[in-house]
Design brief:
The complex is a heterodimer of chains A (108) and B (176). With 108 residues, chain A is mainly alpha-helical. Chain A contains 3 helices and no strands. Classes of the chains: A mainly alpha (108), B mainly alpha (176). The interface between A and B is large, with 81 and 94 residues.
């Protein structure tokens, strides 16, 4: 298959969504600050959105469902970012740090 | 085999490859960069590429929304939080346990392998109607008829999130 025609193929988008998801999971494990973990969570959500949009474009009988679902994912992600960032600010006031290793109280 | 590189399909395919490259490069920068501000810039680049992918998936409206909400709002909010809270600029970055890093790579690679294998092995059955373009009118109509309850619910969720984040960020300021 010609490589310039892959934009019309479902598998391309599924692979991109899987790669975004995997990179996001790796970042959530590997990052050391809360903001880094939040950024990785946004990557995971965008991978899910790409999958929904691909299924909507190629498989769904009603072409509106996936777009509405992706809009809801965007709204949830925005709310999540606002809540998580204010929690991060509150944690920073208490601990003067946003490192995941230093914000512990009970490790003796 | 190669008719001509300047045909419309070829240019469209090249642009699509560019969007894929932008998306994956931005995601790698967002997870791998040492400094948080570079990581946010990589996230914005990745969202730009995803907006291009949405355009190729026949939804220019969602591409616009992606640019407005993610690149315009979420990334700027994260940059605000980085400027308010980041302290690790001067400290030496202590790397984590290398075995934990290897475990992270193995786990995420396993997830990607499973998902990609699933995508290639499955016989996807298409029920696609001939008119595949979801227009803005249809989205608005179904938001106000079929998905009305979810629409109202998401509005309430956003309101509660805004009020809650205000309360969280406000409390404790008078102490310091």
């Amino acid at each position: 298959m010609n490589i310039l025609l892959i934009s019309n193929c479902l598998t391309t988008y599924l692979v991109i969504g899987a790669l975004l998801f995997g990179i996001g999971v790796y970042g959530m494990v590997q990052r050391q600050t809360f903001i880094g973990m939040l950024i990785s969570a946004e990557l995971v959500l965008s991978g899910a959105s790409v999958n929904f949009m691909a299924f909507n474009r190629f498989l769904a009988p009603d072409p509106v469902v996936g777009q509405v679902f992706t809009l809801f994912i965007m709204a949830i992600a925005a709310a999540e970012a606002a809540i998580a960032l204010s929690i991060i600010i509150a944690v920073y006031r208490n601990y003067k740090s946003i490192e995941t290793d230093e914000t512990v109280d009970l490790n003796g | 085999m190669t008719p001509s590189l300047i045909s419309a399909e070829s240019l469209s395919g090249l642009l699509f490859l560019g969007f894929i490259g932008i998306t994956l490069f931005g995601a790698l920068v967002a997870t791998g960069a040492k400094r948080l501000i570079r990581s946010v810039a990589g996230l914005a680049l990745c969202f730009l590429g995803v907006a291009g992918l949405y355009y190729y998936l026949a939804s220019p409206f969602l591409a616009l929304m992606q640019l407005l909400i993610y690149v315009g709002a979420v990334c700027v909010t994260i940059i605000f939080a980085v400027m308010l809270a980041e302290t690790s600029e001067n400290k030496r970055v202590v790397r984590r346990n290398p075995s934990a890093m290897a475990l992270a790579i193995i786990a995420s690679a396993g997830l990607v392998w499973a998902l990609v294998t699933l995508a290639f092995k499955t016989e996807w059955k298409s029920f696609q109607a001939p008119d595949a373009s979801g227009s803005i009118e249809k989205i608005g109509q179904s938001l106000l008829t079929t998905y009305n309850f979810s629409f109202e619910l998401i509005s309430v969720v956003l309101l509660v999130a805004i009020v809650g984040s205000l309360v969280l960020a406000r409390s404790g300021r008078s102490k310091t």
